[in-house]
Amino acid sequence: MPQKNIFNLWKETISAKPISKDTFKSMHLAVLHQAVQQKQTEQLFLIQFDIQDFVLYESKGYLQSITNLSLPTKDMEILWLGFQFHGKSTFSSGKVTGSDTLFSFISTTDNQCLTLAAEKHWALFLGIFGASKQQLLTELPLLRAQYEQQQNNILKAIPISNSDRQTFESLSKMVFGPFSTIHHIGQLILKTYTNYTQQLIRRIKQDKKEPQIQLYHQAIAFIRENYMDQTLSREKIADALHCSIRSLNRAFEGRPSSVNATILSLRLYKGRALLRDQLELSVEQIALILYFPDAKHFAVQYKKYFHKTPREDRKTIATRKE
């Protein structure tokens, strides 16, 4: 009888393990005593809590096969904030959310179904609808703006922060009474949605900067290779890198030097090396080699960078050699 791979045996053993009877107790929404607890399958545990314009939904289990999960629906759109602690979920659009990610989406009055992979699963969804949804988006205009720019009603997934984890852990320390429950839920919704919006905007800004960072380093590399080319210019660099001059200038924004200043500095450092290593060359000759109009112009720029004129620098070198 052929021996089974040890890893496969381990997977079979894990998948065959019965779900703990304490699964409900380990879920975040278990602190809400009026929440409805149910099992969709023997492996998938669900908790749902509805209050006014809020719906909270949590799912957890170790799935042995691909499973469909239907989120609660209302007679109006629901704005959701999803926390994927374990496993991954796939939307009907094909978008996949991975483990340890936080994401937001809007569901319509139609059934919103997610496909769950056959693996360890744990997710929590915070939904808000009606007037409260409009009020929340008014308080978070950046989040509203992101939805106005989207066509598929699913925003970018970002990593779950430690702050979010601590927020859910703090739920177990709260007292949910007839009056305080709606207050705590409202605070939970506002805090988590605010944190998500702030992280989302930071991530979007980083993503926008990334192409500029890459373009900047590509431009620097090209300038270093071609700074002794007399025809080197912003136009030539942009053409070589297949970008516009505006994009090239934007890539250098906030950097120590502009495009032209970078070319100038490299030529000046080249001039300094020539002054020190090739004493047979005059200052005038070096100025021409580096494409300066004349020795005076070269000397002015040189002093700005090195706080000495070319002749003073050369004399210093000669003195040291003696």
Give an account of the 3D structure.
- The chain has 322 residues and is α+β, with helices and mostly antiparallel strands.
- The protein has two domains: 6-207, Jelly Rolls, CATH 2.60.120.10; 217-321, Homeodomain-like (Arc Repressor Mutant, subunit A), CATH 1.10.10.
- Helices cover 46% and strands 19% of the residues.
- The chain has helices at 6-16, 130-139, 141-149, 162-169, 180-226, 234-240, 245-251, 259-277, 283-289, 295-306, 310-321, and strands at residues 36-39, 44-51, 54-62, 67-70, 78-86, 89-90, 96-97, 101-107, 113-116, 120-129, 158-159.
- Strands 1-2-3-10-5-8-11 form a seven-stranded antiparallel sheet. The protein has a four-stranded antiparallel sheet with strand order 4-9-6-7, with no helix packed on it.
- A hairpin with a 2-residue loop joins strand 2 and strand 3.
- The chain is elongated, with a radius of gyration of 32 Å.
- Residues 9-19 have low confidence and may be disordered.
